[in-house]
Amino acid sequence: MKLMEDRIRQDGRIREGGVLKVDSFLNHQMDVELFNEIGKEFLRLFGDCAVTKILTIEASGIGIACVSAQFFHVPVIFAKKNKTRNIAGDVYTSKVESFTHGKVYDIIVSKEFLHPEDRVLLIDDFLANGSALQGLIKLVEDAGATLVGAGICIEKAFQPGGDLIRSMGVRVESLARIKSMSVEDGVTFC
Ligand code: 5GP
Q1: Whole-model pTM?
Q2: Closest CA to 53 of 132, 128, 110
Q3: Which residues are annotated as a binding site for 5-phospho-alpha-D-ribose 1-diphosphate?
Q4: Which atom of ligand 1 is nearest to the CA of 131?
Q5: How high is the ipTM of this complex?
Q6: How are the residues of the chain apportioned to helix, strand and coil, as percentages rounded to the nearest 5?
Q7: pLDDT, tens only, 166-190
Q8: How far is the CA of 113 from the centre of ligand 1 (A)?
Q9: Minimal-distance CA residue to ligand 1 atom 24
Q10: Which stretches of 47-106 are DSSP H helices?
Q11: Is the pLDDT score of 83 beyond 70?
Q12: H-run or E-run covering 155
């Protein structure tokens, strides 16, 4: 999606350690008009998949998922990062390793909101090593729901997540795929 690539070129900031900061338009300050275009693009890609739920992970996926959901006319569920040690039996749970913080944490979704008849689209801001998506995929599988695919705003294709998730047979659609990036040379897209 040219709009996303142009915006990354214009406003993205590259940090050491393969981190791209997009705080000014995607995951701190949010450009809602851009989110609208993202939602339309996800609808173009997944609009014929009979999606019944959009599933994302807190926090930065929520805004993008909510704006996108208005085009699909379906609810959004966000997986919560679980803070308590005891996990009650009325939730689906899986583990995610944070790319940005390096910690492993549990994510949960209430069994009330994911059902075997659901057709689930995953949405997230970044795909890096694929841990967030793997965690979300497990929640969908545990619910016995159907996974229609994943819509990602920015895939860092130089990291293994995209290949890993696609090799699991999951359809991954990324609006911008970064082939390489460095502080010196900037961003190159696939
Ligand atoms: P993964 O689980 O695929 O390794 O990483 C995905 C998650 O890590 C995303 O939900 C996103 O919040 C965060 N993330 C990964 N890479 C970056 C990055 O370069 N910049 C920012 N801002 N977040 C990232």
Answers
A1: 0.95
A2: 110
A3: 128-132
A4: 2
A5: 0.97
A6: 30, 35, 35
A7: 999 999 999 999 999 998 889 999 9
A8: 25
A9: 126
A10: 60-72
A11: no
A12: strand 146-156
- Residue matched to tokens 């995607």: 26
Burial of 73 from C-beta contacts in 10 A (0-12 / 13-18 / 19+): exposed
**Whole-angstrom distance, CA of residue 168 vs CA of residue 160:** 13
In whole angstroms, how far apart are CA 127 and each of 15, 82, 175?
16, 21, 11
Look up residue 174 and give its two tokens: 């990324």
Out of 1.10.760.10, 3.40.50.12370, 3.40.50.2020, 3.40.50.150, the CATH code matching 2-83+90-183 is 3.40.50.2020
CA of 129 to the centre of ligand 1 (A): 8
Return the residue matching tokens 């609208």: 36
Domain boundaries of the chain, sorted by first residue? 2-83+90-183
Angle among Cα 169, 171, 172 to the nearest 5 degrees reads: 120
Residue matched to tokens 């995610």: 96
